[in-house]
Amino acid sequence: MQKNIFKYLPKLFFIGIAFIFTACSYHQKNEDIFEKGELLSQDIITGKSYHNKIVEEDDIYTTAVGVEKFEAGARNVWHSHPSGQIIIVLDGVGYHQIEGKKIEIMKKGDVVKCPPNVLHWHGASKHSSVTQMYILPNTQNGLANFTTKKVSDDEYNGAKE
Predict the structure, then answer these.
(1) Residue 67, Cβ neighbours under 10 Å: how many?
(2) Is 136:51 a contact under the CB 8 Å cutoff?
(3) What residues contact 83, with CB distance under 8 A and at least 6 apart?
């Protein structure tokens, strides 16, 4: 009986090695590149979202760049940007909506352009967090104009996944 156990040891060894490599590969793929950042105020967020500004605006580049992570179900209030905004989805699934248009699904690798001075909102989907990089050009015109109007649950639940 014990002889049968030993004949499986080489197979078990290779299965164990394969498992370790798979686990390490999975961990590396899902590791955040940037720090989580600070928790954003409930005045401009429903749910929890974290913000990490990685490029401060200045007189030379006149561009602000940051990373935001929205937990599942989190979204910001209706807002606009004087010079528009570019969103690059780094991970997860999120929603984006320009006022008067239907909600768009954003996935890893998507690039979304928000036109200047147009009300919009963005955030995570119902079932997934989303991590996004934002780019705000021409910061000499200002960064963002937040309204006090939160995205209602009815508006948010209008997303068709």
Answers:
(1) 21
(2) no
(3) 116, 136, 137, 138, 139, 141, 142
Structure tokens, 116? 């200047």
Which token pair is 149?
């109007």
Structure tokens at 157: 């639940």
Structure tokens at 6: 């030993």
What global pTM score does this model have? 0.79
Q: Which residue has the tokens 């998507």?
A: 110
Per-residue pLDDT of the chain (161 residues; tens, 9 = 90+): 455 555 544 544 445 444 454 444 444 455 678 888 999 999 999 999 999 999 999 999 999 999 999 999 999 999 999 999 999 999 999 999 999 999 999 999 999 999 999 999 999 999 999 999 999 999 999 999 999 999 999 999 987 76
